[in-house]
Structures are given as structure tokens and as C-alpha cells.
Request: fold
Amino acid sequence: MPSALHLALQRFYAGDDGAIEVEMDGFYADALRDGVIYEIQTGSFTAIRDKLHRLGKEHPVVLVHPIVRYKWIAKLDPETGEEISCRRSPKQAQLCEAFDQLVYATRLIGRKRISLELIVVAACENWLDDGNGSWRRKGQSIIGHELLAILERHRFEEPADLARLLPEGLPEQFTVPDIREAGRIRQRLAGRIAYTLREVGAIEYVGKRGNAYLYERAKEQP
Reply:
């Protein structure tokens, strides 16, 4: 069953003149509008690779991935479901965090009819104190997400467009540690950014600096 966030995005992309949950080529498309399929994926891209490959053979498809920049956490009473408390999380997601999923979808990104849209949102995450959740949440389970606001939309039509997600301030030639430092991100995420961009042809390997691989943005083809 789709979450409230997923359903809200389906309705947003379908608009007033589109439809949601449309059967096409043996699958149910999340949203269909003006002949374009919109597939909303909040989790792993691995789960929908086959679906997108199939749909993308005959139809233009936009893979939509929400980035929750601002998140509120609402704690609900396990008996009544009423909200007990609500607080804003100090964490703010960056666009580049999409590479945690894009790293598993490099073969999709280059497909002719498939494009990517990152939609930046504010959302509320609902916790239920049922004793079944992670110890990090003191046993509280995450039971859903609700859309609060749409803040930005970023469309990527070509693989080379993804180079726009590189952090600002990088030199012409750069390494994974350079990406990490410029973006103030985790080393693992920086590595995923470099791997994904190299696999889709958005950056090129040009040598080494010490033990680190050296990259630069791919040059436009004439």
C-alpha cells in the first residue's frame, strides 16, 4: 500500500487531467499525464528497474525521487492514533544524496525515453510507540510519511546533466576526497557520486593524484 507521501506525489504529477495507477504493458504506472509516465520511488531503485526498462521501451518515463529537505517527526499514541508531540528534525537532505539510489540505476539513466526528476519536499514522518521499532527510536515504528510542501523540482534529461549535482568549488580535475570536502558529505556518498557519474559518462577518468583517481567533467561531444 503506497504511503501518504507517495499518493500525494502521484496526484501531483497526474494533475487534474491525468490519472494514477494506470495499467500499462503488464504494470501499473504511478501516474500518467499527456502520454508521459511518472514513476515515484521513495526507496531503492533496484525494486523498479525491470518495470522502468519495460515501460521505457514504448513510452516516455520520468523517474521521480523525493528528497526530504525538511522533516518533522510526529509521535502518535498507539491506542488512539492521536499526535502526542511533533518536532522538526535538524537534518537537511541534499540533492546529492540521491546518488545513494542512483548508484544502482546507472543502466537506466542512459535510456533514451527515461529521465530523472528530483523533487525537494518538506514532509512529516509519523512514529508509533508500539515497541516494534528500532532501538535508535526507542522501539517506535515509522508508519508513514505525509507531504507538507513541494519546494523545488530538478529535471535531468541526459546523463551529462547529473554533473550539475557535483558540489560547488571543485577544481577542474578532482578526486573523491575533493568531492567529500567540497560537499561536506560522507566518504561513501562521495565515492558513489564519482562511480555513478563515471558509469553514465558525465565525468571521465584522467589519471591519478597519489593513490586517488582523478576525474574531470566530460567534454561535450560535437
Remarks:
- The chain has a mean pLDDT of 90.
- The first strand starts at residue 19 and ends at 24.
- The first helix runs from residue 4 to 14.
